Please model this.
Amino acid sequence: MRVARPDPGKVICCGLNYADHIEEMGRPLPTYPTLFAKYPDTLIGPADPIVVPAGLDLDWEAELTVVIGEEVRRADRDAAAAAIAGYTVANDISMRAWQNRTLQWFQGKAWDATTPVLDTYLTPDEVDPKAGVEVICRVNGTEMQRGNTNTLVFDAADLVAYVSTFTVLRPGDLILTGTPGGVGQGRTPPVHLADGDVVETEIPGIGTLTNTIVIEE
Model:
């Protein structure tokens, strides 16, 4: 069933969660999830422009996103899975130079109004990321990313259980599960988004985001 997505209090993201993306970024497979947070202020709608100042090296990161449906704290895997209301689509647009200024990624990930998220979600009876759904990103109609959630290192229930160990999750909270290979920073030479570029983020069956980059001089 398709449901309107409530506003989140917390937005938690997992980086380096697809084996191919980990390889292209030159990192080993992780033992634990690599997590960072965004503020709700970062979120925009599925068709909103992404407006940023000049001089940033913007990159795309298509992501399956978990929507929390009930309060959950210190959950085991079964309780974590039961707390998932459904799944939606997001793009963790990243400012790479800012991200790489320090070992902490927060400052490259939490720019206001830069993370498009679908305003609806599908319930778990209609989508099973463990079995595999495709995560796709296109820039100006050219496919840049196509991965499958059956290759996630940490799946949705893993992430909900892990995160709930240290912070309570409440209805509407979001967990972005990571991005597959094909990001601009992993290309030779690196490719970044420019003014007027149209970024489409699709998870078939769940929905599509269409966002235009607007560079303010």
